[in-house]
Design a protein that fits this description.
It is built from four helices and no strands. It has two domains: 46 residues; 34 residues. It is elongated and about 85 Å long. By secondary structure, the protein is mainly alpha-helical.
């Protein structure tokens, strides 16, 4: 038996198959034969359509709220890091460990 290459189905095709599965006029086996798709895949598409159907009528998926950015804290951290860099560059310059330091 030859292995079939992976197929990518369009969203319109998935919706068509899922709606046919929701109608219930045919069994999953009959739908899989009609559309040449595995029954498990049809069930997954049907479940995804049913889960996403509430979003059509106004409920949106709850997104994670963005954390509030505290600008004062960020500026304080920038100042702290700048101070450390300046201190280290002076200390390494005096020790002669910086490549730009003259000996």
């Amino acid at each position: 038996m030859a292995i079939r290459p992976r197929r990518n189905h369009s969203p319109a095709f998935k919706a068509k198959v899922a709606v046919a599965a929701i109608k219930g006029e045919k069994t999953l086996i009959e739908l899989s034969q009609d559309f040449d798709v595995h029954p498990n895949q049809i069930k997954q598409w049907r479940d995804q359509l049913l889960e996403g159907a509430t979003g059509v009528f106004g409920e949106t998926a709850k997104a994670d709220p963005e954390p509030a950015i505290d600008v004062k804290t960020l500026h304080a951290k920038i100042d702290e890091l700048t101070l450390e860099n300046d201190f280290l560059s002076v200390a390494l310059g005096k020790a002669g460990l910086l490549p730009s330091a003259k000996r």
